[in-house]
Amino acid sequence: MNLITFFLRLTLRIYAKLMRTIIGRFKAKEPPSAYTTLAILSICALYNTANDNITNHYVFLSTTYYESSPIYKPNTVVTLFNAVDQIRLRRTFICYSKNETHSYWDYAKIRYAYDPVGVCKWTAYIATCRVFEGFKELTMAHSHMKRLEANIPIRLPYKSKQKTEVAACFSPLFYNERWQLILTTLEIYRHFGVHLQVFYIQSILEDIMRVLQIYQTQGFAEIEPWPSIKLGAQALKEIGFDPNLELDWRNQASAHTDCFLKYREAAEFIIFGDVDDVLLPKLGTTYMDEFRLLSSTHPTAAGFTYSRYNTQLQTGASPDQFSLTHLINSARIANEWEDGKYVVNTSRVETAWLHYPGIINSIRKDKCKI
């Protein structure tokens, strides 16, 4: 047990004893004494000082600059990063934006990107801060250790010539070799009106990658690399574990949020799911017809969750044996319910999780289950 751990445990024991004393006095309608109050304040100050000396590691995944946005104030950057769960959110970053003649700084607002699952040691956060129009460079520094600055690469939101009605963000593909599922999902989603499908790739067979690249050149798909977190030996020694093994579902929710932050400006609605999840509209002939109908029925909804059932399909093992018509006709839907997948209104949500939105615009709190 190191000195800091010993000190924190001792502090918590003393704090718990004092709190029992305070609660007992409040029950007796006696205010705490000046000595007790001073002791509590001193312990809190020492606890904060000890926490400020603990080293945390941060993995910055992306930083997106919004010149204008329906959610954020003008000239806002949103940084998505992974770090240990329960970092001190009061220990914020400072954003420094500058160009050849001007500079500006702003405190970053740090929030969980979504509710942590609780069993993983690491999770995802977003940090938002303002920059000035025309900035060329962004650096971020810890508010308590300004010497530790990092240059942050900036990306712009994806924008097409004409705003897409519906897009889809898929969970990262990991050692994917099931080309039948990818082709089926691509074509069914295209048929029902998804004009932009975003595939995050960790690893995939080369032949399947070439097929996706053909769809990309035709403007139907986008491909985003999604590598695992790679830290140096010294950082792993300090952390004591591999962060990749302590992020829920291979960091899928971070990929969903990364996709949303980049493509939200390009679509009115975004579907989130796995590549083997196919959403079938029942209230209209296209996704857009259904989403608009649902939005008119539930005008305050930020998104819609769809029930999901396991389905058995028959398909050919080789391309010359593959038939999309035969595959669809062979579908057998089982009475085995799985956690639902969802679609969001991009103007009402800030982040995404696996089965429902992460941060929802405070004005729009409703979700509708279909």
Task: Describe the model.
The protein has about 375 residues and is α/β, with parallel strands linked by helices. The chain has helices at about 5-25, 35-50, 180-190, 205-215, 235-240, 250-265, 285-295, 325-330; strands at about 60-65, 75-85, 95-100, 105, 110, 120-130, 135-140, 145-150, 165-170, 195-200, 220-225, 265-275, 300-310, 330-345, 365-370. A seven-stranded mixed β-sheet has the order 11-10-9-12-14-13-15, with helices on both faces. A four-stranded antiparallel β-sheet has the order 1-2-6-5, covered by helices on one side. A hairpin with a 4-residue loop joins strand 3 (about 95-100) and strand 4. Helix 1 packs antiparallel against helix 2. The termini are far apart. The relative contact order is 0.12. Its EC number is 2.4.1.-.
Describe how the helices and strands are arranged.
Blueprint: H1 3-27, H2 34-52, E1 58-66, E2 76-84, E3 93-98, E4 103-107, E5 109-112, E6 122-130, E7 137-142, E8 145-151, E9 164-170, H3 179-191, E10 196-201, H4 206-217, E11 221-225, H5 233-239, H6 252-263, E12 267-273, H7 287-297, E13 301-312, H8 324-329, E14 332-345, E15 366-369
Parallel strand pairs: 9-10, 9-12, 10-11, 13-15
Antiparallel strand pairs: 1-2, 2-6, 3-4, 3-7, 5-6, 7-8, 12-14, 13-14
Helix pairs in contact: 1-2
